[in-house]
Batch of 2 targets.
Target 1
Amino acid sequence: MSELPTVSLRACTADDLDVLFSIAADLDTWEERNPSAPAPLTRERFDARLAAATDGNTSQDTVNFVVDVDGSAVGSVELFGHDSFARHAEVGISLVPEARGRGLGTAAIIQLVEFGFSRCNLRRIHLQAIASNTGAIRAYEKAGFVIEGRQRQHAWVRGAYEDIVLMGILRSETFVH
Ligand SMILES: CC(C)(COP(=O)(O)OP(=O)(O)OC[C@H]1O[C@@H](n2cnc3c(N)ncnc32)[C@H](O)[C@@H]1OP(=O)(O)O)[C@@H](O)C(=O)NCCC(=O)NCCS
């Protein structure tokens, strides 16, 4: 693998909110595998969602990081849906369009996977991607995920049904023991 750029994962600050809102409100990268309907997102709704998360009204086990490059937020990455018995969780990531295709996503995923295994004591991390999202699937593969299955025509994506690709990585497949 060619050398990856430097990114850091850190907590969100008030200065990051404009960038995170721009990602959340970007319908072009709307995640159709999400069961809620695509709809424009107002800043008020985004702020209310954030306040609810901060107040602890959403799942306590979601771990959210801002992806930082040279002091600026370029996206966010998260672990959610923790299963404390089977010790697995799902990963999600989104970068601003200008930051994509430069290895930053792969670098951030690798760091989150390490955090999940070595800090959260997970033994498996998984995700779902739309089959046509070849960039995301490739970035996850570069971070060590393998394709585990496929849900045929499971998503309605901008005018066509698409398969959902299921991917996962086991702790035993990494250097974390
Ligand atoms: C998915 C995402 C996080 C990937 O991060 P990224 O920084 O763009 O990806 P990287 O540059 O690290 O790696 C992408 C890899 O896929 C390849 N790739 C990118 N677009 C591709 C395409 N359309 N077809 C084939 N390969 C593609 C790149 O060439 C690179 O592989 P390489 O290093 O072997 O050349 C980012 O693109 C993003 O935020 N997309 C929008 C949100 C999203 O789709 N999230 C994931 C939902 S599952």
Target 2
Amino acid sequence: MQFPPHIARRALLVGGLLLPTGSCTNDIPGTTPALREGPFYPRSIPGDADADLLHVAGADRPAQGEPLLLTGVVRRQDGTPLPGVALEIWQADANGINMHPHDPNLGRRDLGFQGYGRATTDGAGRYAFRTLRPGLYAGRTRHIHLRAYPLGRGRPLTTEIFFPDEAANEEDRLWLALSPAERAMLTVRLGTDAQGQRAEFDIVLG
Ligand SMILES: [Fe+2]
């Protein structure tokens, strides 16, 4: 997998002081809206950082919670699929606990859940993560953080993925600040198949 070296470098930075803001990188109409990184981007990237967040190498049990297959296509604005785009996601476990020292409940985190993963789009621009339905934590609705690294010199897109029909959306400051069009672009399409729950989330890069 070809992953930009700056992703690996980020793991060495402390306290977020040197991190890029990640905001306002995709403010062109019709592209996936950008949101801030938030407080829980991992301090250090876990040794197991693949696209299967339900299995942690060396852990003695699988992740707890409701499995969710998160898939989608990354495209340019003109609809062209983008192969080779590196993606990261990070999210709370089923109990709403994040893999970060600032999470007040870190001691109760599910060690069978990876909390962070990486994938790269295939030749058709498609990606897939095996993860779980994130739990709720204080002050936020259900969400998954995502970052996409465009090829070439484009700045990464940092954003969040929301869920439809969540009561907590209506009390979430970030959700309430989005326009209807932005909400539509940042909300997964949920479905179910023989493997379980599926979430489709397409990304349009500017
Ligand atoms: Fe978060």
